[in-house]
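Researcher: Sequence recovery benchmark, item below. Answer with residues only.
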């Protein structure tokens, strides 16, 4: 296949992902149809035949002469043709259980406090099955925690649910008690420091009492060799003088 044909093929695929069924890939465009390019690349890395796609390939599609299938704006991307892009819909028909992946390190706080509404208006993306939630979770954590969201309880505690395509639901919040997850790991108690006791004396040994010993600096020094032989030199001098002083 020629290079130009490969670029056109990628452009058509991106048009489908971004402009027709982003829910199939776990993507949710904002109100203007944009998603983050890094999120798109993570989704493409999961698709056979498209795992090689990098940012330079996407830029090449956007620079294609004529009508491009995509539009770039900084770190955002959207389809040029968004006429088939569907909005989230409020629905009373929703599964009893939905699934939401989170980072493992955030789990203790989320389990206690839930997830409040986002000030930016971003919604929580819920999967309709656990396998798809695990796929989405691996985009944010190598070993994510999958929350099991009880939709009836979440609605009764003030959450709102929107259907988005065939595989996703969206929510504005997850109140505490509206979901469940694995038990928290038990914290190991810190080991107590053991007091070290002096070792008992070995049977039959003698330990000298050093309490009455003078300090090292006050101990008498041994006479030097020069002072030791002073009497010999004195006797020789007397012999030379005939034994008289």
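Model:
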């Amino acid at each position: 296949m020629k290079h130009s044909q490969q670029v056109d093929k990628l452009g058509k695929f991106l048009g489908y992902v971004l402009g027709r069924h982003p829910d199939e890939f776990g993507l949710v465009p904002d109100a203007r149809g944009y998603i983050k390019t890094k999120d798109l690349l993570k989704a493409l890395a999961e698709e056979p035949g498209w795992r090689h796609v990098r940012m330079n390939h996407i830029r090449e599609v956007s620079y294609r002469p004529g009508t491009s299938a995509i539009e770039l704006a900084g770190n955002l991307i959207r389809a040029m043709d968004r006429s088939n892009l569907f909005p989230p819909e409020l629905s009373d028909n929703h599964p009893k259980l939905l699934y939401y992946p989170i980072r493992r390190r955030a789990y203790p706080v989320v389990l206690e406090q839930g997830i409040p509404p986002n000030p930016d208006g971003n919604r929580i993306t819920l999967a309709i099955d656990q396998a798809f939630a695990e796929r989405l979770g691996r985009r944010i954590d190598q070993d994510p925690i999958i929350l099991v969201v009880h939709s009836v309880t979440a609605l009764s505690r003030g959450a709102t649910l929107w259907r988005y395509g065939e595989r996703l639901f969206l929510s504005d919040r997850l109140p505490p008690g509206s979901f469940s997850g694995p038990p928290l790991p038990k914290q190991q108690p810190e080991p107590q420091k053991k007091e070290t006791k002096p070792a008992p004396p070995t049977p039959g040994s003698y330990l000298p009492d050093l309490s009455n010993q003078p300090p090292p600096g006050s101990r008498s020094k041994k006479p030097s060799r020069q002072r030791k032989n002073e009497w010999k030199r004195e006797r020789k001098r007397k012999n030379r003088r005939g034994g008289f002083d």
